[in-house]
Amino acid sequence: MNVKLKKLKDQVIVITGASSGIGLVTARMAAEQGAKLVLAARSESALRQLTTELNQAGGRAVYVVADVRHQPDVQRIAQVARQEFGHFDTWINDAGVSIYGKLEEIPVKDMRQLFETNFWGLVYGSLEAAKHLRQRGGAIINVGSILSESTAILQSIYSASKHAVKSFTEGLRMELEMDEAPISVTLIKPAAIDTPYPLHAKNYMDREPQHAPPAYAPETVARAILHCCETPEREITVGGGGRMMTSMAALAPRLLDKFMENVFAKQEKSDRAPQPRRRNGLDHAAGQLQERGNYPGHTRETSLYTSATLNPLLTVALVGSGVALATSLLRKPTNGSDQPTA
Known about the structure:
This protein is an alpha/beta fold. It has one domain: NAD(P)-binding Rossmann-like Domain (Rossmann fold), CATH 3.40.50.720. About 50% of the residues lie in helices and about 15% in strands. The chain contains eleven helices and eleven strands. The strands form three sheets. A seven-stranded parallel sheet has the order 3-2-1-4-6-7-10, sandwiched between helices. The protein has a two-stranded parallel ribbon with strand order 5-8. The chain has a two-stranded parallel sheet with strand order 9-11. β6, α5 (about 155-180) and β7 (about 185-190) form a beta-alpha-beta unit. α4 (about 110-135) packs parallel to α5 (about 155-180). The radius of gyration is 22 Å and the shape is globular. The protein starts with 11 loop residues before the first strand and ends in an 11-residue tail after the last helix. InterPro entries: NAD(P)-bd_dom_sf, Sc_DH/Rdtase_CS, SDR_fam. Keywords: Oxidoreductase.
């Protein structure tokens, strides 16, 4: 079925995990483009501050305090959207948490709790959205990771949850297509993104965590998400560095294993001693609005790879222009060298 999506300015968009990182940047960017928003997260103070900010700037946003681990909370998000706006057009599942550490040192209860948020919260949101959108059409956008395709050492349980997200998203897409439901289902796969992700992660390592390079700005992901609100896409990888990693996982898995063991594991550890009592997103809600984290290196503000993915016609045009230029240079006479010799 040919799925047609509305322009952002005509949409009502639900965003989970809206108080931090990618979700926060996406909310602000969507509001700037005229979308009406239903924002969900666990921290009421952060949500209240964000909705006030957006509404005072001329937008229209409401919030729902919700923990996506609990299905009734997710159902309430949909109920508020219908009560306030009559419907919603796009549902973005962005809520997520992480854990750093060796699998044998992480309590199983923490692993289960991570899956409750990253996987089951996304399942609850996707099913609620599908039920609402079957008749009117729209988009479901699930934020996975490049770790949906590979595994990051010392982030293994997070990687496992993102593998599950990918499989669920693909299964849901196929079933909706089989039923000819007018719903676009997209998987977004970011590389390392400079958000508070390491700061909010629960940590069982001997040093505080940090992103391994390269890291990209959260705006790169937000632009990809909002593109998919208007344009049906199967999946989008954000960050050329991430694309290289997923390609290595497919073509040279043992090489990637060795890279993870000998290089990546060291890059994930900062020079700061662990802070066992610091608040983490697994056990506590983020109390303040924060788009970016503490990445110590250079944050890449754009991704040429992702820009090319989102603008394939532009890419073709640029490649075509390059070929034409190269051809003309090859044909251009140089110092009469193309003249026949006597």
